[in-house]
Design a protein that fits this description.
With 446 residues, the protein is α+β, with helices and mostly antiparallel strands. It is built from eleven helices and 20 strands. Among the domains are: 184 residues, 2-enoyl-CoA Hydratase, Chain A, domain 1, CATH 3.90.226; 82 residues, Lipocalin (Beta Barrel).
Amino acid sequence: MSVRQVMGTVLSAALLLLPGASRAQGPDAGEPVDAAARAKIVNSVSAALNEHYVFPEVARKMEASLRQKLKAGAYDKLTRSAELAAAMTRDLREVSKDKHLHIHYAPAMPPGMDPHAPKDPAALERMRRELASVNFRFEKVERLAGNVGYLDLRGFIDAELAGETAISAMNFLAHSDAVIIDLRKNGGGEPSMIQLLTSYFFEKPTQLSGFYVRKGNTTQQFWTSAHVAGKRMTDVPLYVLTSQRTFSAAEAFAYDLKSLGRATVVGETTGGGAHPVEPHFLADVHLLAFIPFGRAVNPITGTNWEGTGVTPDIQVPADQALAAAHRDALKKLQDNAQDAERKQRFAWALQRVEALATPVSLSAEVLKSFTGNYGQLTLSYENGSLWYSWPGHKLRAMPMTADTFMLDDGLDILRFRMEKDASGKVTGMTELYDDGRIEKSARSGS
């Protein structure tokens, strides 16, 4: 079975990337277990680990730990198989430090796992509909200030299922001056989606992290594609946002792009899971064991992110990562712009991003001091806000600094700055346009 087939089986077996898909198993879940059943479960899990786990020596250590705890009575008070499975998962991870390794109660083999069973079109269609109901984990794609493209991706679904959605998202981003891909809430998924998405950012086929597979002592390589449906973005500044929750395939995406020097990673160090995993149904004890069978190997570093995570280039708390990446992208675009018009456009967008990142709050007294008539324009104070009006129009003005405001119109092509004399008295208004034009109006009343 190839890594692609394995990952597809994981997805169909558990749909681990979907909300609520890791089926909650409370203390009463599973089947009753006594001493004999607990010993049988330890034997079955140990045998599976020794046969499949990527590091045989670690598998032997995990078996020894389970047997020692069983003998010491650590599991004696656990009377349900789901409860025992959870305890064993914790103990196995304590030895292996492998966050991909886990055991679940399963009354029967999940649909799609049996390689000898005929395909069930109805089950596949149900899975496709469930994935489609969450847009195949493509949560949001939009255009941010300064023509910076943004993709919020919550999971890497098999490209065979999610390819059409992925291509649509990438074509939306195609004309961006910079791109931010947000993986802060992404727990991983399927390698084929990594291949599809990264292909848009390289001119030629480029080797990505592959997998060493214990069984057969083989290595499977992954490359970007020579063809993409749409426009490539090979020279566009690229940012990847991460958090402690970013895991598995999402880490591979960030790690590969960082190792290749193609992206700037912004946020927190990721979870640290680099092992591909395969589900095994242990029919004799009704458990589903997710066992890592290989390890990621990056062609540049020769290693992976297992246990360490991906370290960001720009380290900030996860909730500040988007603003930090957006600011950095606009600064670089401004610095590299070859003409004054583009420099002005990026500087304008950067001012907005910085203002929103550090909001300014002005007192009612200060806001009221700005009210008055400025040519055909009027500033008024209502309901705690300053309002910018001209015949037939009225927009809320939001402070960017102590004297500069932007309008709540969704366009951001016009801002204004209040002008004062040496004594601090408001004397007029200067309208600022995104193309660099300015217009001044004297204050005529309050």
